Amino acid sequence: MREAASRPAQRADPAKTEMRPAKRPSEFCAGAGAGRIPIIGRMEFIRDIHARKAAAGQPVVSFEFFPPKTEEGDRTLLEKTLPALKAAQPDYCSVTYGAGGGTREKTLMIVDRIQREHGLTTMCHLTCVNATVEELRGVLL
Question: Is 135 tagged catalytic?
Fold first, then answer.
């Protein structure tokens, strides 16, 4: 196994966030907002988190969130719920990204804020329920 995989994950410093233009919609799920992707410190790929934990014989802990429907719900998630759950030291989290389009923009905003403000690796969880092949292609390609 590579040496980098054995190092502990480094949490991001929001003050050291770089930005670069997004090239494809699927890049937004890496943690974008308004067409840009934050590159924060040394965020780990989800696959690398799983590999590192498997090599160490440790479980992977993650949380999944569904985008709240209101601005108050957003504040509660980002200012109260997430900080409380971070006490469990999750390895990453995911935010549901509906292929049908109902939660897309909200998901991207939440993923971006979790990574920038909380330094936690975050991904979009693409749901395919009631989505056509064309809709899924549009999201992934």
Answer: no
